[in-house]
Structures are given as C-alpha cells and as structure tokens.
Amino acid sequence: MPDEIDLTPLSNSEQPDQVSSLNSTEGESNNSTAEPVLEASNTVVQPTPQESTAASEALISLALQELRGRRDALQHEIKSLNQRKSQLEKDIAGSFAGQSDAIARRVKGFQEYLSGALQGMAQSVEQLELVAQPVMVQPSPLDQQAAVEHEAESAEDQTPAIADTFRPDEALIRSNLERFLEQPDFYADPWKLRRSLDNSDTTLLKDWFFNQGGRGAQSSRGSRTRNVLVSSALIAILSDLYGDRFQTLVLAGQPERLGEWRRGLQDALGLGREDFGPNSGIVLFERGDALVERADRLEERGELPLIVIDAAERFVDIPVLQFPLWLAFAASPGETYEDDNELL
Fold first, then answer.
1. For residue 123, which of 11, 278, 331 has the smallest C-alpha distance?
2. pTM over cut 0.70
3. What is the pLDDT of residues 255-274, one digit of tens each?
4. Other CB atoms within 10 Å distance of the CB of residue 180
5. Rounded average pLDDT over 280-304
6. Which of 52, 114, 246, 341 would bridge 242 by S-S if both were Cys, CB 3.0 to 4.6 A apart?
C-alpha cells in the first residue's frame, strides 16, 4: 500500500520556496530545449564548387548566345542597308537629276573659259556677212610695190585738196581738241570723250585732220591703250560732224587685241555692248578683206566709214587706201617685239 500523502496545505512561508524551485526547474528545462533550436536556425547550406562552376558556365553561355543573336541581327540590318544604298546610287546615276549633277560638276571647272569663248564667238557671228565671198587674187610683191608708189604719187598730187577736207569745220575741231586737254568728264553722254588727252595726242590729231585730210598713218602712242584713247577722241569729233551717218571699223587681227579695243572704247566713250556689231556704231574685224567689204557696203548706202588699224598690223591692205577716212598706227620696234612675243 502506497505511502500516505499529506494533504495538509502548506503554510505561506513554505509556498514561495516551492514555487521558486518549480520555476527554477522549468527554466532549466526551457534553456536546455532552446539551445538546440538556435543552433539549427544559424546553420546555412553551402553549395559545392562543382555546382558553382556549372551555374557560372550556364550564365556565360546564355549571355554569349544573346550577344551572338544581337550581332547576327546587326549584320543582317547592315547588309540590308548596304543593298538599299547601292540601289539608290544606281537609281540616282540612271535618273535625269543624277546625270545633270555629274555633268554640272564636269562643266563647272570650264565655266570662265567657256564664257570668254562664247563672247568671242558671238562677236565673230555678229561680224559675219552671210553672202558669197568674192574671189580675190593676191597681187605679186612687184605689183604691190608699184601700186604703193602710184598711190604715194597720187597722194602727193592731191595733198592740197585732201588737206582742205576739214577746213570748213576747223573751228569746231580745234575747240574740241582744246576741251580734251581739260579735266576728264566721267559722266559725259555716250559717244563723248570721258577722258583727257596730252598735248602730243592733240598734235597728232591736228596733223591727221588738217595736214593729212583724214587719211594717213601716225606713229603709235607707245601702247594699245593710248592708241585707243586717241581713236576715241577722233570718233567723238566725227560723231559731232556726221552724226549717225558714219561707222567706225577697227582692224586688230586677233581676238585678244579686239577685246582690248572694245573695252577701251567702252570706257572712253561710255558705250555699251549694243554699240558694237554690224548694225551699230563700231564694228571689230580680224580680217582686212571683211573690213573692206563692209566699208564698200556703207558707201553704197551713202554712209561714211572710218577705218582704224591697230599698230600690230604689219601691212595696210591696198583697198583700204581708197576710202576717205582711215587712220593706221605705225608700231615702234619695241611694240613689234612685244607683239611677236605674244604670238609665241
């Protein structure tokens, strides 16, 4: 039979001790069970080296695959763009705009040269006479010498009559020559001299008017520019005397010389491009036979031709001597040498 249990209630002094013993017992039991739980929660599962290497290789392979895909896409796009570029270039080259652009690039370098050539061509076309050219037989040197001597003798016989050609207009001519010695009038009307002359220039013109009667050769003034200036003064005086009934014919032999004459006359007389041509006041010639033919036609119409011959012309054609007004400039040895160098 079990021992008897004492059911007598404990006194107040005994109860706290028992409670504290129980609490201490329970605390020990709780601590004993909590330590394994903390140790389990702090434990981390570490992967093996083989597993880490496999994962890295998988990531690298995936990245490389993505980069290859992008590269292939870019290469395909570049190839497509190159094909479009080639097609566009073919279309441009075959189109009118492309051909025009190519032609323009080739022509641009020759623009100034072609402009000058076309101007010279236009001037030559203006001087063309669309008629059958007469057949002219050139005389032999002996015939030319005999004709020159005969003309010289005739000129000597007729000198008094020729010299009196401009005597009625002597006062007007001398007043104009005196005015040309004054300050230039840069705003004068067209066909009026806008430059000034030297005393030697007016002396030359007085000799040509009153001693030669408007027909003869004079020494060159040393340069083509000075000769053009003297001729401009002569044209200005004759325009006052004869108005629109006379036309100036200039023989220079080469396009470059004719260009200098045209620019000089434009500047000295205030002329424009419309004043040069077959039906205008001044006509420029490279060949003497064309000039003679033009002068003959003017006389047939009752007009008066003034023939001016450049100093570079070595000879004066015999038919020129028959006309009432002509002025030939005789070049000095230095000018002849310079013209020979230009030809070279």
1. 278
2. no
3. 899 999 999 999 999 999 89
4. 23
5. 92
6. 246
